[in-house]
Amino acid sequence: MAWPTLAELVSNFAPMLHLDKDEVNLPSSTDWYINQVGYQAAGGIYSGPGQWNWGTVEQSSPDDYLVAPQVIWASLMKGYLPSATSYVHVLPVDDRTDMVDLQYWLFYPYNGQEICEVTGWTGSTGRALMPLSIHWGDWECVVVRVNVAQQVVGVFFSQHSGGQWCSPNDGFLTFSSGTHPNVYVASGSHANYPASSNDTYEIDGVDVWDVRFAVADYARGGGPNVNLATPNPPVVIQNDAQAILPTPVTPPPWLAFKGRWGQPLEPTLTDAQIGSMVAAAANGMQLSSAVEDAVQYVANSTTLQAWLSEVILPIVKGDLTGPTTPSQKGSWAVTPTFLPFGSDTPIKSSASLVPVALAAMPGSEIICIGMGLLPPMMGAWSFNQGQWTKVASPTMNQLAGLAACATPSGGLALLGLLNQKSLVAYTSSTGSGGPWSVPGLWPAPAAKTGASIGQYNGAWYIAWGGSDGTIQYLSTTDWVHFSSPQRVMLPGANGPVAATIAGDALVAPAVECCGGSLVIVAPVAGLEKGMPTVLGAYVSPDGSNWTGPNLLPSMSLYSDSSGSLAGGPNGTLYCFYADGNKKVRYAVTSDGADWSDSGTIAGALSIRTPSVIPWQGGFLVVHPGKGSPTLYWNSATFE
Questions:
Q1: Which residue of 155, 356, 390, 605 pairs with 370 in a disulfide if CB–CB is 3.0 to 4.6 A?
Q2: pLDDT tens-digit readout, 245-291
Q3: Is 302 strand, coil or helix?
Q4: DSSP three-state, residue 212
Q5: Alpha helix positions (H), 72-143
Q6: Can you tell me the distance from the alpha carbon of 253 to that of 258, in angstroms, rounded to the nearest whole number?
Q7: In whole angstroms, what is the distance from residue 118 CA to residue 24 CA?
Q8: Are 154 and 165 in contact (CB under 8 A)?
Q9: How would you classify residue 180: left for phi > 0, otherwise alpha for psi between -120 and 50, otherwise beta?
Q10: Is the omega angle on the peptide bond into residue 435 within 30 degrees of 0, that is, cis?
Q11: pTM of the shown model
């Protein structure tokens, strides 16, 4: 097959935007905005509207910014829908010639308000507008990956500091006129979602006294629809896939702009205003008297107002100085890695299994083992040729933080935390049904978390959280002989410092190799007051000396959860985890130090750590669901 012309390609797959019914900050073209704003140079020279052009500011500084004159704020905030245009950057997908990424960049003159959401334990929710992340200029992006057969492979929806890939097989993507992805745009923030919802899309939140305080988006549709194919066709601003589509492109002069697309704004909410906002959101909710009293107490206490602002402000991550030009963003040069997951599917009769462990057995079989809440305490399933079958379950004491792997003899090893005190390991030569023996690996080390298992330099490495909260590990080559436990020690100003783990028995650090180094990923408590728990990666080139933590790009980590690691193609390493919004997210690295946020598995929600294992050129992921511990599974194969 042959590619169409570049103009035909970007027009054929241009998204269809569905704005929210309450949206008042509409998109426009860049020219419409630029012609009405001034230019503030870092050196102090200000040029008003019509007094500057891109030729005079060609050597722009990152500290330069555009200025919206106050006398026309009202009209600029509204945007100008008749001029709305998409600006397309064409990227090759790795070194392939049968696939390209079409980055459709969208410009909004003004980023508006989001929603403060307060939800009680009964499920009753109250909402109030939250003018926290307002700023001039707003760049958003929708990436459409297409192949030479003129098929959509996947679509990436930008959402705040991250985003979400969707696959045609996951049940979330829909199309207008056959090839134009439907995009539902959140009111105010302009985050992009694959489907409309009458409920809010939670960005992030925190639970306090059985009440959830959150920042959320509305993307219900019902507002104007913006066809980005016509009447204003997409404008290609850069073509980096000329080996496939040999059409030269002249970039617009603003693409080289290094500064900001709006003047700095001051945060608009004091602690007292945040308290009033929370009180307004909670007003009229059907809460129990105790919960309502607690919410009002938070809203009215000056001490707790300050604490609440420390919780809410990091969630918003609003850029009050205006955004940078698309070419200055990290996602411009590298599209987030796409894994074409299908739809989440429950594993039949798997209710009440938390936590779970996966092990790849000889041949193509995968074993999933979970610890139940009620007798019989454990359950096991075999996965083969796309089907799950219940198999004989282990019979042993209740364990926490399970981990499993195949042994060199073709048997199965199972690790867990016994009685919340010590780490133990069992081995079976016949699979999940046993019989099980306890290897003489070590006097069972004192621990406060379960363990994980990864391979490095021909050995299995086991990592866990010690009883003192430090991250510990040991190794074995045969599941008979084991090294002595060691701590992850980091360089400190006054000598080596032990790395610690934030979490309980269900929070196991993940261990695997990447780029010739050993990598351990574990929850890290907020590095600053009021900051949420996130994931951090510790890297060792020799299994002894460590650096870190290198933070993964999560807005926050869901409580009592951690990450799971699995190796990808070309020496990459993937980490799967449940973020603060209960979404199953994945990040990728090639060295354990720098991580890119690749997005979420569409529709996958979890309150515990997902389990992941390499499978058929991709990954198999198993995770407890959001509302109950029923297990769900999903898979993806690298394109």
A1: 356
A2: 999 999 999 999 999 999 887 656 677 777 777 777 766 555 566 66
A3: helix
A4: strand
A5: 73-78
A6: 11
A7: 24
A8: yes
A9: beta
A10: yes
A11: 0.87
